[in-house]
């Protein structure tokens, strides 16, 4: 049960209006009283109902997107900007402004708590990479209008939207099998890369439905860099019985793989077919160009904005959904 401002007032022995003044740092009460009230509020775990405050103050007409966006994001993860463009298009068409804030995961809870306690925005969009269970607890207790971009990697009650990476993996395998490119190798990212994991799960499931499976020696983990892709290509080419095709978890890995195949004069797709997910940033720039399972990231952002507008009207609305149907963008590598 959440703590209300009335509970804080009762515990501190003051009126509700005095608690409000203290928490909003009004100068009409003494510093000693304000300090006492803040201490009581902290001890009780009180979180201000920012929606009620914003309602009283009228809407800010602002939505904030919070994510950890490091220096090389434009190069390593250009999809985030496609999502932002779709989100911006959606919220602006409803008369809202989009604020973009980059915050490290360790600081996300404090930042978002401060943002809402001050009533600075109407709603927030959070990238799943900075989500923690403590942050989820705060959002739930405060009933904050929110949407998570990406499915949380644990059972969650929050509202989220994501591409269906498991389905994408299945679609990739269907394409490779239709071209008679078995046996197939899978080159994934790090062990904690949930996108890579979900794509592998979908690929594995589809193989099983066709009476096949990935051989252990054909499954690789990498650091999702060009160099790691090149090193994996070397391992594959040294095998006594190499696979007929390689499915890469992302286009960065695939680019490294293709570079090494080119260095060793491997003919793609005649000798080794290659497929990946996502067209950006590299699949359009290899020779031959890489076939990929593509998702419309702009559509993801646009749909996220639409869902958020609904949640502003109905804060208790809970939505957990996949959107944007993956499709094969066939190029010369298959």
Shape: elongated
> In percent, how much strand structure appears in the residues?
15-25%
Low-confidence stretches: none
Quick one: how many beta strands? 12
Strand order of the largest sheet: 2-1-3-4-5-11
Q: What pattern of helices and strands is seen along the backbone?
A: HHHHEHHEHEHEEHEHEHEHEEHEE
Helix percentage range: 40-55%
What average pLDDT do the residues reach?
86
Tell me the span between the first and last alpha carbons.
57 Å
Q: What summary fits the major beta sheet?
A: 6 strands, parallel
What structural class do you assign from the helix and strand content?
A: alpha/beta
Summarize the structure.
The protein is α/β, with parallel strands linked by helices and 334 residues long. 44% of the residues lie in helices and 15% in strands. The protein contains 13 helices and 12 strands.
